[in-house]
Specification:
The complex is a heterodimer.
Chain A: H1 7-32, H2 40-67, E1 89-90, E2 93-94, H3 95-113, H4 123-146, H5 151-155, H6 163-181, H7 197-216, H8 224-252, H9 257-271, H10 280-301, H11 312-330, H12 333-336, H13 348-379, H14 386-391, H15 393-398, E3 409-412
Antiparallel strand pairs in A: 1-2
Helix pairs in contact in A: 1-2, 1-3, 1-7, 2-3, 2-4, 3-4, 3-6, 4-6, 4-13, 6-11, 6-13, 7-8, 7-9, 8-9, 8-10, 9-10, 9-11, 10-11, 11-13
Chain B: E1 2-8, H1 13-22, E2 29-35, E3 42-46, E4 49-53, E5 56-65, H2 70-81, E6 89-95, H3 108-112
Antiparallel strand pairs in B: 1-5, 1-6, 2-5, 3-4
Helix pairs in contact in B: 1-2
The chains are: A mainly alpha, B alpha+beta.
C-alpha cells in the first residue's frame, strides 16, 4: 500500500511552516533593536533579505543537497530546481510542503549569522555570503543529521529540531565571520547602546511564538511527539527566563529587559535538539541549566576583542551545545517512543554520539565558512569604509533612514538632479 | 570669558567628551541640531520618491570658559572631532559679557571654574 497523506499532519505542517517563516522577520526585530539607530534598517534587512536570497537558493539547489539521496555525505542533484518535488507523500505530508517547511529553517539559520557582523559589513558581500553559506555549509550539515542516509543520522545522533544543524552551525560560522570581518571601529572604544529595546522584546516574543512551529512542527505530524515538543518549547524558556532574571538580580540588583529577551532565546535554542525526546520536567531542568553558561559567556565576550556584536556564539553556540549534550543525558524512551535513552537513563553511548555530532558540526562549519569568507574577500571588500561606518549603514548601504525627520529633504523629479 | 560653540559630527561626540574631560573641561551643554555644510550630497529613495538630503544631523557643544582655557578647549575638540572628511564641523569662539552661576550667584571667572578647583 503506498504511503498516504494525513490531513491532520498536513494542516499542522502548513501552520508550522508559516510560523517558522515568521521567525526570520522576528529575528530582524530582535537584532534590530540592539544596534544603533543609524544601522537599524541595515540590521533588519540582513534578516529580511535572507527570506529572498536563501529561500531561492534553497528552491534551486539547497533542498536537493540536503534531502537528496546520493550519498551519506551529500544529497544529489535529483531535486535541483524542484524537479521531482510534487504532491506525492513524504511521510504523511505532501512532498512540496516538506520542502517548504525545511526551507524556512535554511533561511533563519543563515540570518542568525548576521548578528556577528552587524554595523560594518557591506550589504552585497553579505548577500553573497549567506547564499553561498546556505548551500555549502547548511545544506550538507542538514543532510548529515536529517537526511535519510546522512552519516550523523546513521550514527544515531538525536537532534529533534536543529540544535546542531541550525544553532551550533550558525554560531561556528558567526565566530569566523566576526573574526575575518573584524570589529566595529567603535567596539570597546565607545559605548554602543541599543536603539530600541522594545523591538528586541517584541522580536523575542515573536521568536517564541514561531518556535512552536520550529520544534513541534519538527515532529512532521500532529501527533504525541508534536504535543511533547510543543509543551517543552513552552516550559524550557520559562525556566531559562527565571534563572536568567535571578542571576541578573543577584549580580546587579536589576532585572534587565535585554537579559530577559536573551534568556528566552537561549532557552528556546537549548530545548531545540531535545524538544521531542525528553520529559517536560527534564525540559524545565534543561532550560534552567542552559541559562548559566550562556549568561557568563555573554559577560565574558564583552571583555574580549572578538566583536560578535549580538552574541550569536553565547546565545546560539553555547546554548546549542548545552542543549545537544543534555539531549544525550535526558532523553527518555518512555517519552520519545523508544527512539533512545540518555546518560541518565542508562545509555552512555548516546552522550558520546551527541558530542561527536556537535564537534563535527563546529569543525566543518568553521573551516567551510573560513574558506567562503576568505574567497569573497579576494574579489570584494567585505567592510564599509570607516567614514560610512561612522555615518551609519542605513544611509551608506540602503539610501534610507529608519527614523527620518524629512526636514531639509528636497524632492528630485524624474531625470533632473537640480 | 569666552563661549566656545562647536558643531560636530554626532558619531564623534563620544570621543570629544572624552577628550574634553581629559583636558579638565567639565561644564558643557550639548544639543542635537541639523545643518548644511559642504557635505557630499546624500540621496535617499522611498518607494520611487527620490530626495536629496540637504541637512545633516550634527551636535552643538557649548562651553563657557575663562580666557586662558580657550586654547586647551579648542584643541581638545579639534583633535577629537576631526576625521579629515568634509563635514567635520566648525568651532566658534565668542566673547561673553557675563556668566553667573545660578546656585551661588558667583560671577564670571568664578562661575566658569569647576567646583573644587581653586581659581588661580
Amino acid at each position: 500500500m503506498p504511503p498516504s497523506i494525513s490531513s491532520a499532519d498536513t494542516a499542522w505542517l502548513l501552520i508550522s511552516t508559516a510560523l517558522v517563516l515568521m521567525m526570520t522577520p522576528a529575528l530582524g526585530f530582535f537584532y534590530g533593536g540592539m544596534v544603533r539607530a543609524k544601522n537599524a534598517l541595515n540590521t533588519l534587512m540582513m534578516s529580511f533579505s535572507a527570506l529572498g536570497f536563501v529561500g531561492l537558493a534553497w528552491a534551486f539547489f539547497g533542498y536537493s543537497v540536503a534531502f537528496g539521496h546520493a550519498s551519506r555525505w551529500c544529497g544529489g542533484s535529483e531535486y535541483f530546481f524542484l524537479r521531482g518535488v510534487g504532491l506525492e507523500a513524504q511521510g504523511t505530508i505532501p512532498h512540496v510542503l516538506f520542502f517548504a517547511y525545511q526551507g524556512t529553517f535554511a533561511i533563519i539559520t543563515a540570518a542568525l549569522i548576521s548578528g556577528a557582523i552587524v554595523e560594518r559589513m557591506r550589504f552585497g558581500p553579505y548577500l553573497a555570503f549567506i547564499t553561498l553559506w546556505s548551500l555549502i555549509v547548511y545544506a550538507p550539515v542538514a543532510h548529515w543529521v536529517w537526511g535519510s542516509n546522512g552519516w550523523i543520522s546513521k550514527l544515531g545522533a538525536l537532534d529533534f529540531a536543529g540544535g546542531t544543524v541550525v544553532h551550533v552551525n550558525a554560531a561556528s560560522a558567526a565566530f569566523v565571520c566576526a573574526m575575518l570581518v573584524g570589529a566595529r571601529k567603535d567596539y570597546a572604544r565607545q559605548a554602543i547602546l541599543p536603539q530600541n529595546v522594545p523591538f528586541t522584546l517584541l522580536g523575542a516574543g515573536l521568536l517564541w511564538l514561531g518556535w512552536f512551529g520550529f520544534n513541534a512542527g519538527s515532529a512532521l505530524g500532529a501527533n504525541r511527539s508534536a504535543a511533547l515538543a510543543f509543551t517543552n518549547t513552552m516550559l524550557a524558556p520559562t525556566a531559562t527566563l527565571v534563572v536568567w532574571t535571578l542571576m541578573d538580580l543577584t549580580r546587579t540588583k536589576k532585572a534587565t529587559a535585554i537579559g530577559a529577551a536573551s534568556g528566552i532565546v537561549v532557552g528556546l535554542v537549548a530545548i531545540t535538539p531535545a524538544a521531542g525526546f525528553i520529559s517536560p520536567i527534564s525540559a524545565i531542568l534543561l532550560g534552567g541549566i542552559a541559562a548559566v553558561p550562556s549568561y557568563f559567556a555573554l559577560l565574558y565576550r564583552a571583555r574580549t576583542r572578538l566583536d560578535d556584536s549580538l552574541d550569536v556564539i553565547a546565545a546560539h553556540g553555547v546554548g546549542g551545545v548545552v542543549g545537544a549534550l543534555l539531549t544525550g543525558v535526558l532523553a527518555q524512551k518512555s517519552w520519545n517512543g523508544g527512539v533512545g535513552n540518555g546518560l541518565l537513563f542508562g545509555d552512555v553511548r548516546q552522550f558520546g554520539v551527541q558530542a561527536i555530532a556537535v564537534l563535527v558540526t563546529i569543525v566543518y562549519s568553521f573551516i567551510a565558512t573560513f574558506i567562503i569568507v576568505k574567497l569573497l574577500s579576494l574579489v570584494m571588500s567585505l567592510r564599509t569604509e570607516a567614514r560610512e561606518e561612522g555615518m551609519g549603514l542605513d544611509v551608506s548601504q540602503h539610501g534610507e533612514e529608519a527614523y527620518s525627520h524629512g526636514e531639509g529633504a528636497i524632492l528630485l523629479l524624474d531625470g533632473r538632479t537640480e | 570669558m569666552k563661549l566656545v560653540v562647536a558643531i560636530i559630527r554626532p558619531e564623534r561626540l563620544g570621543s570629544v567628551l572624552e577628550s574634553l574631560f581629559r583636558a579638565k573641561v567639565t561644564g558643557l551643554t550639548i544639543s542635537r541640531v541639523q545643518g548644511h555644510g559642504g557635505e557630499i550630497e546624500r540621496v535617499e529613495t522611498y518607494r520611487g520618491t527620490t530626495v536629496k538630503m540637504e541637512l545633516t544631523d550634527k551636535v552643538r557643544v557649548e562651553i563657557g570658559v575663562s580666557d586662558h582655557f580657550v586654547e586647551t578647549t579648542v584643541n581638545a575638540i579639534m583633535q577629537a572631532a576631526r576625521t579629515g572628511d568634509v563635514g567635520d564641523g566648525k568651532i566658534f569662539v565668542m566673547p561673553v559679557e557675563n556668566v553667573y552661576r545660578i546656585r551661588t550667584g558667583e560671577l564670571d571667572r568664578a562661575a566658569v571654574t569647576p567646583v573644587g578647583v581653586p581659581p588661580d
